[in-house]
Design goal:
The protein is α+β, with helices and mostly antiparallel strands. It is built from six helices and ten strands, in the order E-E-E-H-E-H-E-E-E-H-E-H-H-E-H-E. Strands 1, 2, 3, 4, 5, 6, 7, 8, 9 and 10 form a ten-stranded antiparallel sheet that branches.
């Protein structure tokens, strides 16, 4: 028997909604379980410091303390990448024709989540820590395993290709750059360290994160507390 179960927990300011099956496997023809979704704290606008200060202070920093980020920091960084910023549903980073070809994943000690902009939430994708594997798939850049959060930007080119044809590959990569720069500047504004990483085996990384075939990883942004 397939019974949908919904659990809502308030943990501090964090609302946790878990929806899933109760009991055994679903019967044939029944829909799969809804993945667990964790709503993130509301993003803060503005944070302290000016844009100019963040641009000047941003540096690629690979010496990281293996200390976790707060849920608010994780939420703020994901919002900077792809958060909804107006009532029409437009996002923090520009998108060619508002086709929104990016899917963003957050990799932490707690597992892997897919960012859901419309809910400002993380959908649980994998329950275990994949950071060390991602360091390996990034041609053994072992410092990556120390980052509290790895923001993985993936692309679904078909969304943009439908409208822009041959120009889509370039447009999509430009958009990755917009989103990544937002994350790097947001990390700097939060006093965190980050470095853009493109040196990785994309197939191995996609396999390590068990990504859907159409989500192609392009950029990896490790973020953490700088070692002092
Ligand atoms: C497309 C791209 C790919 C990069 N890939 C890596 C990488 O795989 N590993 C790494 O440690 N840094 C990587 N970087 C960071 C650069 O090394 C860094 O930006 C550069 O040294 C300039 O330093 P700054 O970021 O502090 O200004 C990459 C930067 C870009 C733009």
């Amino acid at each position: 028997m397939w019974v949908r179960r919904t659990v809502v927990l308030m943990v501090g300011t964090v609302l946790v909604v878990a929806c899933g099956p109760q009991g055994d496997e679903p019967e044939a023809g029944e829909p799969p379980a809804t993945p667990a979704v964790r709503v993130l704290p509301e993003p803060a606008t503005p944070t302290t410091g000016s844009l100019e200060e963040a641009i000047e202070a941003r540096r690629s920093i690979r010496d990281l303390e293996p200390r976790a980020l707060t849920e608010a920091q994780v939420g703020q960084l994901l919002w900077a990448a792809q958060g909804i910023t107006d009532d029409a549903g437009r996002r923090a980073a520009p998108s060619a024709g508002a086709t929104y070809p990016l899917e963003v994943y957050a990799v932490t000690a707690d597992g892997v989540g897919r960012y859901v902009p419309s809910a400002h939430a993380l959908e649980v994708h994998l329950p275990d820590d994949r950071r060390a594997v991602l360091a390996d798939t990034s041609f053994d850049q072992e410092w990556i395993a120390d980052a509290a959060l790895l923001v993985v930007i993936t692309t679904v080119e078909a969304r943009t290709e439908q409208r822009y044809g041959d120009r889509a590959p370039a447009y999509v990569l430009i958009e990755v750059g917009h989103a990544a720069q937002n994350v790097l500047l947001q990390a700097t504004a939060l006093g965190l360290a980050s470095t853009p990483v493109a040196a990785f085996d994309a197939d191995a990384l996609a396999s390590a994160l068990d990504l859907p075939d159409e989500h192609v990883p392009v950029y990896l942004l490790p973020v953490g507390h700088p070692s002092t």
